[in-house]
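Example record

One chain of 236 residues, shown exactly as stored in the release files.
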Amino acid sequence: MNELPLVPGTFPPGLEHLLQIDKLLIIQKLEAAEIIYGIETINRYEVTNNIGQQIYFATEKSNLCFRFICGQQRPFKVYVADNMGTEVMCFKRPLQCSCCCSPCCLQKLEVQAPIGEPIGYVIQKWHPCLPMFAIQNKNKETVLRISGPCCCCRWCCAYNFKIEALHSSEEIGKITKVWGGLVVEALTDADNFEVSFPMDLDVSIKAVLLGASILIDFMYFEKTSKQLIEVTDRNQ
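Predicted structure tokens for this chain:
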């Protein structure tokens, strides 16, 4: 018996681009202000399908003070628009203290499609060593799990976060943080991710996995403004 959430007969408008694909590439746009001044700017991402065609563009909306003070822990909304400029999804992350030593300080992300209507959630699960997440549907039922490596930093070639079936722990996909090259990794916090999953997975869950990739980027690979300034100073 297949335990994976499969594509339903109907799904939210705008998610049809996720129907016949099994891979997404998420490309964070380079920001000149981060390279030159070490200032933390909003994140922008291009999302392409498995043959390299852009299908979405995602833009963070967050407060400047939160970006400077809270850094990678800042609350945000990331709005996802299609190629016509129509906003079809929103990833919403509340302000939450981040501490790997406490099960009370865990991150979560709400995925909305259309905007204002939740279709799923990414919930961080407490683990003393590993990044662990539950992928939930709109009814807050866990349908998949994500487990990451014990160490996440920018100074390595790539990192894989396994997407696993709920009961069998079978790996059915992965979120890979792609190495962007020494210059990009050292001077900016622009990251690229590749997300793979079964073709027949529910498109709403595919959208939640896209949101999970954005959350993982913020939690483990986003530099703070202070770190950007320090790195920039060392390279001047």
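Notes: The longest helix spans residues 203-221.
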